[in-house]
Amino acid sequence: DAGITQSPRHKVTETGTPVTLRCHQTENHRYMYWYRQDPGHGLRLIHYSYGVKDTDKGEVSDGYSVSRSKTEDFLLTLESATSSQTSVYFCATEDSYGYTFGSGTRLTVV
Amino acid sequence: QQQVKQSPQSLIVQKGGISIINCAYENTAFDYFPWYQQFPGKGPALLIAIRPDVSEKKEGRFTISFNKSAKQFSLHIMDSQPGDSATYFCAASMEHSSGSARQLTFGSGTQLTVLP
After folding, report:
1. Which residues of A touch B (CB under 8 A)?
2. Which of A39, A68, A74, B11 is most enclosed, with most CB atoms within 10 A?
3. Residue to substitute from B35, B104, B110, B111, interface A, most A β-carbons within 10 A
4. Which residues contact B111 (CB under 8 A, 6 or more apart)?
5. DSSP labels for A47-91?
6. Cα separation, B105 vs B93, whole angstroms
7. pLDDT tens for residues A1-29?
8. Do A29 and A94 touch, CB atoms closer than 8 A?
């Protein structure tokens, strides 16, 4: 997806460990979002950012934190990973045409 | 609380047929209703979107029908093709105060399979 890079694409981690997912955009968009996708639930908003150092919680924010120190980077941290956080995580940016999503990070917590 | 309900969960259509996916919302403050298409291993991509001041929007084989009084909207795919096989999500969002993000609330998704 043009302008949005998520890393890593796949990760397996152990319960209780911290994990950080990265979203990098090259379009200088103000708004950035982290969603998780689970079967039967669609995409659910975890956290979002409306500017550098400006973030807020979404629908399913418990157990997650975010940081945005530069316009282009939006980090999602699982402070102590649990099996319920096994999911596919998508980052998105927003412009006047709508949302653009990255290709996702598949995270497995064992 | 699920604010956007989507049905069916899965749909199988013959090539050339019409695929219809329905969504219903609860919050009357929603003012933007996009549909996203997602292929395996990819992120969702914007397909078509509508605002509540119109009842229908058509782009090629894809049409959104919008019923404001019933708080429902639907996606119609005419002349469905095997290449349309994907997961489709409806969504809704509302305008927020200046500086706040326009958050999308998604339906649960419909897995469409178009048989050749």
Report:
1. 1, 4, 31, 33, 35, 40-45, 48-51, 54, 56, 58, 90, 92, 94, 97-104
2. A74
3. B104
4. B9, B10, B11, B86, B87
5. EEEEETTEEEE-TT-TTEEEEEEETTEEEEEESS--GGG-EEEEE
6. 6
7. 558 999 999 999 999 999 999 999 999 99
8. yes
